[in-house]
Amino acid sequence: MTPMILSWWDIALAALLVIALAGLSFWQRLALERQILIAGSRTIIQLVLVGYVLTLLFKEAAWPWIALMATVMLAVAGYEVMARQKRRLVGGWGYGIGTASMFVSSFTLTLFALLVLIGNEPWYQPQYAIPLLGMMLGNTMNSIAICLDRLLNGAWQQRAVIEARLMLGQHWQQAISELRRDAMRAGMIPAINGMAAVGVVSLPGMMTGQILAGAEPMQAVKYQIIIMFLIAAGAGFGALVALHLGARRLFDERQRLRLERLRNAE
Amino acid sequence: MRLASICLQLAAGECVCLSGASGSGKSMLLRAVADLDPHQGDVLLDGQPCSQMPAHDWRRQVAMLAAESQWWFDVVGPHFEQVDHALLSALGFGAEVMEWQVARLSSGERQRLALLRLLSHQPKVLLLDEPTANLDYDNTLRIEHLIKTYSTEQQAPVLWISHDAAQIARVADRYVVIDGGRLRQVVP
Q1: Which residues of A are less than 8 Å from B68 in CB distance?
Q2: Minimal-distance CA residue of chain A relative to B115
Q3: Does A51 share its domain with A75?
Q4: For A179-235, what is each residue's pLDDT tens digit?
Q5: B interface mutation test: which of A167, A170, A258 has the most B CBs within 10 A?
Q6: Nearest CB to B36; choose among A163, A169, A170
Q7: d(C-alpha B156, C-alpha B148), whole Å
């Protein structure tokens, strides 16, 4: 089966649905029409731009450009992780810890997938590298952001408990262990739920896309399984790294809780 | 706020009470001695400076008790590394207290158990930040008695923040007031 080619007319027809929704919002005085239209326009502009970038990238397939693209994606993802935290570490730490843990989880696992599982020639072939990295970053970003938010906000709220534990002679790791465990659990829930519900409740986007593009369903399923496992592992490893670095930064070399290293983002 | 240079020496088994207006730096001083906040100067225990001891070792030996105790597990037992049954009964508890839910303890029970938890580590020095502030008279006397007994038996010095003149008269060997960031000894 060859994929059906979509024309700009098809897109215009789909856009009419969004415009109709905006009109409905105006008629019902929901005051959402502006947001709907702006978001819809952003979808078109951003995706078309990415389309051009990818077309160029696929034609060239030169690794410096791919590396540049990957770096930009990582930098934006690191910013997103920081932006979602209510209380952030001051200085470069808020951005640095999020980005470093995204790097460890997404970059290394994407490399592993490209080199060991897919085994293309050359391994950095952008048709595989960029979408894979994008999926990894997008999904691990959620987990890491939730973990760090729980940890830092929790430390702020549970200051008295953490200090009481320090006063009993506990190490900093012990004094913050329950909080760290809770944060890890909260961060892993999306990835675990994703693995458990996939195929029954939801058909994942990548698999659906491959099938729409004419791939064999079983081939698409295999890709999806690999992706799900990579995402779960990436979310877990990334969260562990982020929690370790974040928790360490909350204490100084004398194991004192240093909440002045946090600032409220609101 | 800053504390001026403060020089205070506690003898073995001595109980020094400390008071001062709110915001005068009493808790700040205690937290600095416990090494919970960054501070200048040094604190020595038997001639050994705090800065040369691992932080958790220091806090285990120079133990601090606050007015409000903190609990992080649902039941009492897991908060204790070891239980001194003699102390437990001295405070009016049976062994079954370890199974109790923390949420159902009264404030007096909480504070007595918090003191027990602290003493079970056999600290060499006690720093007490208004440990009986939220307690009724009976519980206050029990806590005082336990602290004094421990201090005498273990020869542990006690630095005790208190505002209660009667309490200070009952427990203090020496009484100092903190004022304008400086310590002033009160002669009885």
Answers
A1: 160
A2: A168
A3: no
A4: 999 999 999 998 898 888 888 877 888 888 888 888 899 999 998 899 899 999 999
A5: A167
A6: A163
A7: 9
Of A60, A75, A107, the residue at which a domain comes to its end is A60
What are A50-89's pLDDT values in tens digits? 999 989 888 887 889 899 999 999 999 999 899 888 899 9
Tell me which DSSP letter residue A201 carries: T
**CB atoms A166 and B68 under 8 Å:** no
Decide if pLDDT at B47 tops 60.
Answer: yes
Same domain, A142 and A171: yes
Compute the nearest-CA separation of A178 from chain B (Å): 8
Contacts of B160 (CB under 8 A, 6+ apart): B15, B16, B17, B18, B126, B128, B131, B147, B171, B172
A140 vs B167: CA distance, rounded Å: 57
Q: Which of B37, B60, B65 sits opposite A256 (nearest CB)?
A: B37
Interface contact flag, A256 B70, Cβ < 8 Å: no
Do A185 and A205 lie in one domain? The reply is: yes
- A69 and A53 assigned to the same domain: no
CB contact under 8 A, A165 and B36: no
Question: Would you call A209 helix, strand, or coil by DSSP?
Answer: helix
Work out the burial of residue A144: count CB atoms within 10 Å of its CB; fewer than 13 is exposed, 13-18 middle, 19 or more buried. buried
Task: Work out how many domains chain A is built from and give that number.
Answer: 2
Which chain A residues contact residue B37 at CB under 8 A?
A: 256
Task: Check CB contact under 8 Å for A254 and B70.
Answer: no
Alpha-carbon gap: A168 to the closest alpha carbon of chain B (Å): 6
A150-176 b/e with 16+ CB inside 10 Å = b?
bbbbbbeebeebbbbbbbbbbebeebb
Stated as kind and residue range, the H or E segment containing A93 is helix A93-102
Q: Given an 8 Å threshold on Cβ–Cβ distance, is B60 in contact with A168?
A: yes
State CA B145 to chain mean position distance: 13
Q: Is the pTM of this model over 0.90?
A: no
> Which residues, in sequence order, are CB contacts of B81 under 8 Å at separation 6+?
B120, B121
**Residue B124 touches partner A, C-beta closer than 8 Å:** no
Instruction: Please give the pLDDT value at position B63.
Output: 95
Chain-centroid distance, C-alpha B10: 14
Q: Kindly state whether B115 is in contact with chain A, defined as any CB-CB distance less than 8 angstroms.
A: no
Residues A160 and A92 in one domain: yes
ipTM of the complex: 0.93
Domain region containing A210: 62-264
| Per-residue pLDDT reduced to its tens digit, A17-51 | 999 999 999 999 999 999 999 999 999 999 999 99
